[in-house]
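User: Can you predict the 3D structure for this chain?
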Amino acid sequence: MPFPFLFLALSLALGILFSSLLSFSLLSLVLSMIACLACAWLLYPLQKHKLSFLFVLFTTFLFGASLYTFSSRSFEENSLRKLKQTTYTDFYGTLYKSPSFGIAKDYLFLKVKKVVYQNKEEKINGNLRITVPRSSEFPAPLSLYARDKVKVSARLLPYKSFQNFKTFSLDAYLKSQKIHNRASAKSPLLVEKIESGKKYSPIRLISVIRQKIQKKIKKHFSSPDTNSLSPQGAVLEALLLGERKRMDFSVTQSLQKAGIYHLFAISGAHIAIISFFLFSLFNLMRIPNRFSYLLVMAFLLFYVFLVEGRPSVLRATIMTLAFLFGKLIWRNVNLINTISISAFILLLFNPFSLFSVGFQLTFAATFSIILFFPKIIKLLPRLPLRISEIMAISLTAQLGVLPFIASSFNRVTFSSLILNFAALPLVALIMACGYIFIPLSFVSSFLAQLLAKVLNYLIDLLIGCSHIFDSLTFISYRIPTPHLLTIIGYFLFLYLLLLPLKIKRQKLILLLCFLVFFAVLISYPFSSKSKNLKLTFIDVGQGESILVEFPGKRKMLIDGGGFPEGTFDIGENVVSPFLWKKGLKKIDYLVLTHAHPDHLDGLKAVSKNFKIGEYWEAYSPTEAETYTEFKSQLGSYTLIKRLFRGDSYQQKKVIIEVLHPESGKTYVPTVHNDHSLVLRLLYGQTSILLPGDIEIDAENKILENSREIKSQILKSPHHGSRTSSSKAFLDRVAPQIVVISIGLRNRYGFPDHEVLERYKKMGIKVYRTDHHGAVEVSSDGQKIYVRTASGIAE
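Assistant: Here is the predicted structure, written as structure tokens:
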């Protein structure tokens, strides 16, 4: 059998996947595994080699299922994972790797030994990620190294953040990183170093070297205005050390759009570049091949430690080490077996990595290059400077990763096929100059500064590459999440093309079938339909965003959430992915209740990512920069409407009534809560009231001016604050269900205790996005159905 390790790695992966979907007793899995292994052992001496190997595969499958079950249970039963303390807690432990420095905050990775809260001490064990914000008083990064013992006063954060249907799972990501919990400290003052790590500890030495390199990069690549790391310095840090948290958000977005952001995640390309330079150097020095292999392997191991075992580096290095080790032992290496061994080892040490997008992209690209490169290169003309080879590698890698990128990042980009010709050599040159710059910066500041100027120019060229196709929207665009059957069909016919078919017609049919699935994948020709009226109150933290799906195809998005502080883009990272998972490419009606950051900010990304049919609003602020920026992004094809009390619209059988505000000045200096647009939806015997952030004054105006406001479902006004939900208002509305859109442990103290008691006394069922995640309410015009992303009923 030519590829035994391929089948073993696939069996292990399938076992892990099987165990993640279905729950089985660990004992039953282990006993079944032993039985299969015994069958394989008994059949082998009887010359039943194929049947014996089949049982080996079953054994590997059951081993993968057992491994995942054991690892998952161990992870969930971890004492730090189980800690539910909501007050500030003192965490004592040891940093297991260097702090990760961001633009506005740093991250500590602490192996916790004990916690102290409410004068109680508890022994505990687990890995904790702690966020420490920067401030004007403490703008510098934390001066800590791996193996330092520290005490941090911090508050635990939920490991299930933004619980929405079928979207990114923070919990799964933390599992893949083996982080049991996360916490946040208010200030760097709450981080106290108790004891420095052992001076000659290898891990601490690597951490010291790493941070000295970061300091040298900052010294020669600092921004003159803020004295922080410049955008060019952040790019260099990402390429050399794999630290991407200090990269400017706009630079990151343009690189993602251009399809060359993968070059900044240290992976196979970087390891290949490093290996190429090392082999070239050793060749010039006339070092024998076998000794060169050993030297390259040693350097790569050191590099893994320097970047502190980042998963992408670890994956690429294990692949390279397996290949070089094979060359040392056998000279001729089967690449598929080598890559399969790497996957097997990685899954063995961390079964959760199977669900990591990085793992999937790495192996999809690598296998695709190995399988299709020989066929593609024959179809291309011979060109100088290895252009044909670069084109073939780029094209074959794209074939393998396209479905994963479309599924995980909702993006299709063809620009990378062209830009890689410029970007790959530039990255190689920047890395070469960067590795010369590092030792030079410790020897001569003057020479380092000269080289820094060259690096600045090269990095500017690289960033400039990402903007070449900005005006060509068809070359890089966003799409909804592809259906699973589309992805299966794509890969099935792609790999069937590898079969040695003798009849040309068969190959032509396979090629046509592949092209059909390829076209479906990159265009998503489906439309999302709904039988009922359906509202999803999206979990956007402390903010508000509601998707309304009318019977048929029409969709309405009311508000987009947002955070008044920080750089996290709720529209790009939460609202848009949720809409893509729903299969949406267009928002027929985009509604802004009022221009406050927690309702408006997310709409900026939504208006970029989706075609907007109509935009509805009431009052417009004249002194809001974010609002002006958002309005400028609406396309010329978007119809803008102003709505006021008394307006009414009908979408098939659903009537939309506008209850507030009253008509008046359309432009105001600042929009207030009582300026909120209030909508009431009526569908058959079901009515739903969506009052935005109105407070008691606006509630009273609605009571005075509206004859009928009774509604079975009420979106809690102003996130359940004490200035809303008056008894008179609730008496008239008489809701059966109230949905409160709020963030967990928000700083405003929402929802107010008195308001909750008022709901309780009136017998109203309350759903909260901080507890239940996204809340979906649907109606056929008669009955009302509710489900939540968390699965909790009430």
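The chain has 25 helices and 26 strands. The first strand starts at residue 89 and ends at 95.
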